[in-house]
Amino acid sequence: MAHDLEIRAAAAVDFDAVVELLSRASLPVEDLTADSVIGFLLATIDDTIAGLIGLEHFRETGLLRSLVVDPAFRRAGLGRLLVAALESQAAGQGVRELWLLTIDADAWFGELGYSTRQRDQALDAIRQTVDFTSLCPGDAVLMAKSL
Ligand SMILES: CC(C)(COP(=O)(O)OP(=O)(O)OC[C@H]1O[C@@H](n2cnc3c(N)ncnc32)[C@H](O)[C@@H]1OP(=O)(O)O)[C@@H](O)C(=O)NCCC(=O)NCCS
Q1: What's the 79 CA to ligand 1 centre distance in angstroms?
Q2: Predicted confidence pLDDT, tens digits, the chain (147 residues)
Q3: Model-level pTM?
Q4: What's the pLDDT score for residue 119?
Q5: Domain-by-domain residue ranges, the chain?
Q6: Domain 5-146 part of CATH 3.40.630.30
Q7: Strand 97-102 relative to strand 61-69: parallel, antiparallel, unpaired?
Q8: Which residues contact 53 (CB under 8 A, 6 or more apart)?
Q9: In 3D, which of 37, 60, 47, 56 has the Cα closest to residue 6?
Q10: Protein residue closest via CA to atom 30 of ligand 1
């Protein structure tokens, strides 16, 4: 049977599911609210949330955050699809450079065109995000890509 894959913007009502998926992957949730997840992108398969990704937007710079694919749906291209959808949404909003922090997906993001940056190269606004302040510098890799 064919499965129905959809990428759609999150609504406030998706908040609990978003937090649950991120928590299970040990990604930061402490700053999220039902309002702030509106606009996160969700990948749904037959109406089940299989993955998600978020954007924080600071003029021409964006922070890609909260990328997670449910372990049951990994290695099927969903992560890559979510990143591509976020990049095109961000570019449409005037973002020229996307930054991110990751604990262990740096090789994966490298394949998608992201390269490692030093912490002192990041904008102050990026350095004040919860990804930046909650992930230990020794553990997390900072990366960026021009759109
Ligand atoms: C990183 C993550 C989002 C990838 O999601 P995914 O849906 O499995 O990724 P995709 O299937 O789109 O991956 C695309 C390619 O990477 C490969 N790949 C995926 N996971 C991999 C892994 N752990 N190791 C090596 N290669 C991997 C896939 O085989 C695929 O390659 P192919 O098209 O040549 O076969 C997912 O592993 C995850 O949720 N990790 C935990 C949270 C996290 O680290 N988030 C990033 C912090 S912002």
Answers
A1: 6
A2: 678 999 999 999 999 999 999 999 999 899 999 999 998 999 999 989 999 999 999 989 999 999 999 999 999 999 999 999 999 999 999 999 999 999 999 999 999 999 999 988 888 888 888 888 887 667 899 999 999
A3: 0.92
A4: 86
A5: 5-146
A6: yes
A7: parallel
A8: 40, 41, 64, 65, 66, 67, 68, 82, 83, 85, 86
A9: 47
A10: 75
Q: Rounded distance, CA 33 to CA 19, Å?
A: 9
Q: Which residue has the tokens 């990804």?
A: 131
Cβ–ligand 1 contact at 78 (below 6 Å): yes
Q: 57 has which bridge partners? A: 62
Q: How far, in Å, from the CA of 1 to the mean position of ligand 1?
A: 25
The reply to whether ligand 1 has any atom less than 6 angstroms from the CB of 85 is: no
Residue 68 Cβ < 6 Å to ligand 1: yes
- Closest CA to ligand 1's atom 29: 75
